[in-house]
Amino acid sequence: MMQSGIPLCNSCGESVGLGSNDEAFIACHECNFPMCENCVHDEIKEGRKVCLRCGNPYAAATSLVNPTADNVEKDDVSVNRSTMAHHIESYQDVGVHARSISNFSALESESNAESGNPIWKNRVESWKEKKNKKQVISKREQEPQLPVEQQMEEKQPMEDVQILSKTIPIPSNKITPYRIVIIARLIILGLFFHYRVTNPVDSAFGLWLTSIICEIWFAVSWVLDQFPKWSPVNRVTYTDRLSARFEKEGEPCQLAPVDFFVSTVDPLKEPPLITANTVLSILAVDYPVEKVSCYVSDDGSAMLTFESLVETAEFARKWVPFCKKYAIEPRAPEFYFSQKIDYLKDKVQPSFVKERRAMKRDYEEYKVRVNALVAKAQKTPDEGWTMQDGTSWPGNNPRDHPGMIQVFLGHSGAHDIDGNELPRLVYVSREKRPGYTHHKKAGAMNALVRVSAVLTNAPYILNLDCDHYVNNSEAVREGMCFMMDPQVGKNVCYIQFPQRFDGIDRSDRYANRNVVFFDVNMRGLDGIQGPVYVGTGTMFNRQALYGYGPPSLPSLPKSSSSSSWCSCFSYCCRSKKPSKDASEMYRDSKREDLDAAIFNLREIENYDEHDRSLLISQMSFEKTFGLSTVFIESTMMEYGGVADSANPSTLIKEAIHVISCGYEEKTEWGKEIGWIYGSVTEDILTGFKMHCRGWRSIYCMPVRPAFKGSAPINLSDRLHQVLRWALGSVEIFLSRHCPLWYGWGGGRLKLLQRLAYINTILYPFTSLPLIAYCSLPAICLLTGKFIIPTLSNIASIWFLGLFTSIILTSVLELRWSGVSIEDLWRNEQFWVIGGVSAHLFAVFQGFLKMLAGVDTNFTVTAKAGDDADFGELYMFKWTTLLIPPTTLLVVNLVGVVAGFSNALNSGYEAWGPLFGKVFFAFWVILHLYPFLKGLMGRQNRTPTIVVLWSVLLASVFSLVWVKIDPFLSKATTITNNCISIDC
Q: Which of this chain's residues are annotated to bind UDP-alpha-D-glucose (predicted)?
């Protein structure tokens, strides 16, 4: 029992005792940190002479430097036990003290009881249970000839041993010829460049050298793009088997919970009705309601978004039961009611028509209410927005406001009209203050990770853009066929679904569908280490987001000593025993850089309970994850769930705390864990870091597309979107995470996967040789020179072989992928259009940001638009991105006119060389034709600025052509030198 008025020691839990002046012993006079004399002696003995809380020297340090022999013997006996408890309790107190500065002392009192800190004790108890389960499993593993599934349970039905997914390689009769042509094309390229380099054009050496450099770059770019598609695969899932295994009748559902993330910024550019449809489709997904939570991030702190969610939550009470009762698809009302199909197909209930009409009427009324909110929000009051209770809206200043969280639906919220429970819906707007860097979308996503970990902590996260709705209600089950498969899912960091789009014209003029990328490149990557993360439609393993490595990583040996933080850290990052192979030693030395998390969950299992507790307390969780004990505990729950020690009354306060603007300071957020900062394309960077740690990803392509979204279909918005993607790639290229050099030592990223990532960051630089190569035809036509000398028979063979191999590669690629030739052609066209415009600007902006510190903010692409079919397709918005392709078009057209004029004046001998030059020029014009059509507008009305540019450029190049005057000088020369009749 403690004496009255004397505090308990934060290390051993006993009374701190009395000092020499008969008052409570004080270890540190600066902060009055409560520690008993024996524990202070332990600290000094182990070389720590400063206070754990404030860092000042202990007051009793001088008197305890030379302890008596009896005390030393006593301490030696108890040091193994007291040191473990000391580190757990004292380290935790340091974190709580630091957090109390941020006015969260109430949480500290709740988490610290008289018996010690329950959070760390609860964690140790959970490990004991896990270890006991592992021992039981290990005994079962000793039984001979048992399948893996039977080792997890004594007896299981036969359907439980059936696989949940299957990998189907491309048939050999399709993939083998494809690989042969790739190798043949590589050989022909070598012979082609040998001819080109050994046969220079002396009369046009500058043009010839430029063309050689460009062609070599194109060849390297082709290799980077082609070889990652060496072994594409298809996958099949069995959702019926998933249900049979984890949703047995009469037993609790064993399906894993999922947290959905939806992010939005500006409700005027991202219409609330579109965001609401995405939320409604999530709430109505075909998955147990208690396993689904939807978090909406409002990074613009707009009251319009909040009020629209209020209306959405109310409408969901009617919409969700209607969807599940009649199994309608899709479950986004706007897109369901706009379908031009027979909605009575496969519907046998007589009441369906009546209820559908009533639901459509309710939805129209709901739309009126939401549109009224949008109309009201067009003009912000001078005094700012006011809520219904008369208080000012906290987010009136989007750059300076507190964190806001509102739970609309869920376990304790409103039920649907049938009285059934609804999935949880949570509104989140993180705190923003001047002077803090908020990291745009990546920062908002990391805030959602922490909020969801505190409130629900589902082991899997599925993130969607605000304009990407759930098109297939079984999409979550499709992903779970991989994630919950004991053989496949253990090393999977995320499941990537392809992006599909609505509202695009049939011809897909600007390649908005990206069919070649999603149906060819991504399937190729799935056969290596997995597809890249594309920012939306992705199901994550939460442990991978925390920076932990996959379970397949080799375990580290048990440490023989854990006396200091540095020694424990070194044991977690590398093996104590030197590797036999030099390459293995080098890879181990790089582990610290590749493993963001301090250790692998599997590695901790090698330690006993006491060493493990000491190790974890010394690994500085708070320096990695931030000052939140509730969140830290959630990170250790491999299978999710809210901690037993968490107090529900304080969870919202803790959730507000983890979205504060200063929470991520001096932590690993955005550096090694969560969404990675440093690029506007945080998706590519985040997936790259996971693959470098040894994880793999999976590409899931259900027959019915899992998600659908809207894409910018007019030329200006499309180019701005491509500009943002390219700028992000340039930023990654100029950062420490560049795939050219990052992660080589770990040996976990496969070579072909690295080539794919190198291609994703180098493709914007192709704009420089591309714009030079597209200018060559006009220059050749204006000057009368050419980049290729007179062709010999052998040279003609190499040229013919090169063109043939290019065509065969494309044809065979179409054969195994199922992509149409029109999609391939549109992709090629927009590769040129984007390359000579958006990619070019991205390269210069990226270097400006690095060299001059000029940060270019990207504009959010407008979503969804006019009711008229493809109305935005013909909208024209002038932007500087249109200048380079306009110039190339005009120059090549002028060059063609000049070339034909020159041939008419030079006679029939000039027509032969002319055809090669004109073919070259028409190649450029044909690729830029969609751009030209976009400039002309709906009724061939060209904007005035385009006319002015065309006239100006045509005049300049015409004057240059007249100044060169090639045919006149040639005629004069012929007249002077011709002395015979047959000259």
A: 263, 269-270, 299, 440
Report d(CA 212, CA 504) in Å as an integer: 39
| Set 519, 595, 683, 823: catalytic member | 683
For residues 396 and 384, the answer to whether their CB atoms sit within 8 Å is: yes
Q: Rounded to an integer, what distance in angstroms lies between the CA atom of residue 743 and that of residue 693?
A: 8
**What average pLDDT is seen over the chain?**
75
Tell me the pLDDT tens digit for each residue of 650-669: 888 888 999 998 888 888 88
The count of other CB atoms within 10 Å of the CB of residue 397 is 12
Residues 627, 617: Cα–Cα separation, whole Å: 14
Phi, psi (degrees; rounded to nearest 5) at 390: 95, -10
Q: pTM higher than 0.90, yes or no?
A: no
DSSP string, 42-105: HHHHTT--B-TTT-PBPTTTTTTSS--HHHHHHHHHHHHHHHHHHHHHHHHHHHHHHHHTTT-H
Quick one: pLDDT at residue 340? 80
ω into 271 cis (within 30 of 0): no
Classify residue 897 as exposed, middle or buried by CB count within 10 Å of its CB (0-12, 13-18, 19+): middle
- What's the burial of 931, exposed, middle or buried (CB within 10 Å: 0-12/13-18/19+)? buried
Phi-psi region of 407 (alpha: psi -120 to 50; beta: other; left: phi over 0): beta
Query: Across the strands, what pairs with 468?
Result: 709
What's the CATH fold of domain 239-549+669-711? Spore Coat Polysaccharide Biosynthesis Protein SpsA; Chain A (3.90.550)
Contact between 176 and 231 under an 8 Å Cβ cutoff? The reply is: no
Q: Region 971-977: what's the mean pLDDT?
A: 42
Instruction: Report which of 379, 371, 359, 407 is spatially closest to residue 272, judged by C-alpha positions.
Output: 371
Q: How far apart are CA 720 and CA 714, in angstroms?
A: 10
- Do the Cβ atoms of 623 and 667 come closer than 8 Å? yes
Position 768 scores a pLDDT of 92
Top mean pLDDT of 134-148, 461-475, 566-580, 635-649 is at 461-475
Identify the residue whose tokens are 């003995």: 45
Eight-class DSSP state of 459: S
pLDDT per position as a tens digit, 262-320:
999 888 888 899 999 999 999 999 999 989 999 999 988 888 999 999 999 999 999 99
Residue 233 CA: distances (Å) to CA of 60, 494, 702, 816: 68, 17, 14, 10
Give CA 191 to chain center in angstroms: 41
| Residue 717 host element (H or E) | helix 715-733
Give the residue numbers of the binding site: 263, 269-270, 299, 440-441, 465
Binding residue ranges for UDP-alpha-D-glucose? 263, 269-270, 299, 440
Number of neighbours of residue 352 by Cβ within 10 angstroms:
16
Instruction: Note if 266 is an active site residue.
Output: no
Report CA torsion sign: 959, 961, 967, 970.
positive
CA of residue 254 relative to chain centroid, distance: 28
- Say what angle helices 715-733 and 751-762 make with each other, to 10 degrees: 120
Q: What is the pLDDT of residues 427-445, one digit of tens each?
A: 999 988 888 888 888 999 9
Active site residue 299: yes
Which one from 93, 225, 266, 299 is the annotated catalytic residue? Answer: 299
E strands, 466-604, are 468-470, 492-496, 500-502, 538-541
In the chain, domain spans:
7-61, 203-232+744-964, 239-549+669-711
Residue 52: which pLDDT band, with cuts at 50, 70 and 90?
low
- For residues 853 and 30, give the distance between their C-alpha atoms in angstroms, rounded to a whole number: 43
Q: Are 762 and 221 in contact (CB under 8 A)?
A: yes
Q: How far apart are CA 861 and CA 714, in angstroms?
A: 11
